Amino acid sequence: YENHILYKICHPFGTYYWRCSQLTFGFAMSIYIIYLLGTIKAIIDIIKGRKISGFMLLCDVAFIGYFMFLIIWEANNRQLYNSVPLMLVGLTIHMYHLLKKEAFQH
């Protein structure tokens, strides 16, 4: 099985395992950073009295609640994979919120 591409990518002794781990970690961190920046901008918009998307607020509250639950309750955060669809939806909404035209007209 050592010549199989999945072995080379997924097994800790595989040829490309550590490079693949670096790339996936970088991808996950970029999602978290964009999500954090979008959440900060949403909080600023709420303080300034602007309206934000209810769905974005729902994604933020759900993700923050889920993340806090895992920090307090779980020692191993492998259950964070269940929130990947929510993270991707929230990422898309936050990217739109950060890059929409009104964001550049201050």
Structure in words:
The protein is mostly helical and 106 residues long. Helix content is 69%, strand content 0%. It is built from four helices and no strands. The chain has helices at residues 5-10, 17-47, 54-73, 84-99. Helix 2 packs across helix 4 (84-99) and helix 3 packs across helix 4 (84-99). The longest helix is centred in the N-terminal third of the chain and has 31 residues, at 17-47. The mean pLDDT is 82.
Give a topology summary.
Elements: H1 5-10, H2 17-47, H3 54-73, H4 84-99
Helix pairs in contact: 2-4, 3-4
**What general outline do the C-alpha atoms trace?**
elongated
Number of helices, counting only DSSP H or I runs of 4 residues or more: 4
The number of strands is: 0
Taking the sheet with the most strands, its summary is:
none
Report the sheet-strand fraction: under 5%
Salient structural properties:
single chain; 106 residues; mainly alpha; 69% helix; elongated
In short:
With 106 residues, the protein is mostly helical.
